[in-house]
Structures are given as C-alpha cells and as structure tokens.
Amino acid sequence: MRTIIVSLLAVLLCNVAIAAEVDKEEKAAQKVAADYFEAVTKAEVAKANSLATVPFSLDGKKTLTKKEEVEAMHKEIADRKGARELPEYKVALTEKGIVLDKEVFPAYRTFRISLKYNGRDVKIDIFVKKGKDPKVIGFAD
Predict the structure, then answer these.
(1) pTM for the full model?
(2) Rg of the chain taking only CA atoms, in angstroms
(3) Spans of all domains in the chain
(4) In terms of C-beta density within 10 A (0-12 exposed, 13-18 middle, 19 or more buried), how is residue 86 classed?
(5) Among 2, 48, 69, 131, which residue is least crowded by beta carbons within 10 Å?
C-alpha cells in the first residue's frame, strides 16, 4: 500500500513539474510576442529581426524561407509605416484565428494582440515557435 502511495505521489510531482515547465515556456513565448509587436510598431528593425526566425508566415498566405526575406520585410514595414506610438494593448494565448500549415510549422503558439486603433477594435495574431528558445514565426493582421 505504501509503495502505491509513494508511486502516485511521484507521478503527481512529475506532472506538476511538467506543467510548471510548460507554463514557463508559455510565459516566455508570450513575452516574445509582445516584444515583437512593440519592435515592429516602433520600427525597431534590428530587434524585430532578433525575435524572428524562418520559416515565417505572412497572414498564412505566404511563407518566407530565408532570414534575409524576413529582415527585408521588417525594413519595408518600418520604411512604409515609420515609428508609431505604442498603443495600449493586451496579449493573450488564443486558439482562434488562422491555422498554419502543420508540415511547415509543426509546433507553435498563437498570441492575440488586442488594441483600439482609430476607434475600432484591432486584432493581430503573432505565431511563436514552441520550445525553450521561442521565436516569432509569423503574424496575421
């Protein structure tokens, strides 16, 4: 009986440790999503580049496969839109929105940035690769 209780306690503790690790990775990924949103909004191209990796999805319609393409895209956004004032926003894990091709993007989390812009609700989804080194692998707006 004692062996069963000890075994069950060991399993429970392992599950708690795994859940804590997943929660830690999710928080790190959420921070990467928020930092990326802020870098793109503020036209901080080098910072946006450091937070992203390839393959990189644009609205789930186009996939960039070279880091240089992602860097050029960030520069083009900065040149076109310039540095903008950072709006008040919220970021949260979501299961809504588009689903990326699982063969190209097998493991990722979607974080939804919600904000008001010119009086209307805006939602931007940022896709972050799962794992110990989370990187942005795309966005949809």
Answers:
(1) 0.84
(2) 18
(3) 2-140
(4) exposed
(5) 2
Residues 11 and 83: their CA atoms lie apart, in Å, by 51
Determine whether domain 2-140 maps to CATH 3.60.20.30.
no
Beta bridge partners of 121: 116
**What gap in Å lies between CA 40 and CA 48, rounded to an integer?**
6
**pLDDT tens, position by position, 94-120:** 999 899 999 999 999 999 999 998 899
By DSSP bridging, strand 89-94 and strand 62-64 are unpaired
Bridge partners (DSSP) listed for residue 115: 89, 122
Contacts for 69 with CB less than 8 Å, ≥ 6 apart? 54, 56
Helix, strand and coil content of the chain, in percent to the nearest 5, comes to: 45, 30, 25
Q: What percent of the chain has pLDDT over 90?
A: 79
Q: What are phi and psi of 91, to 5 degrees?
A: -130, 130
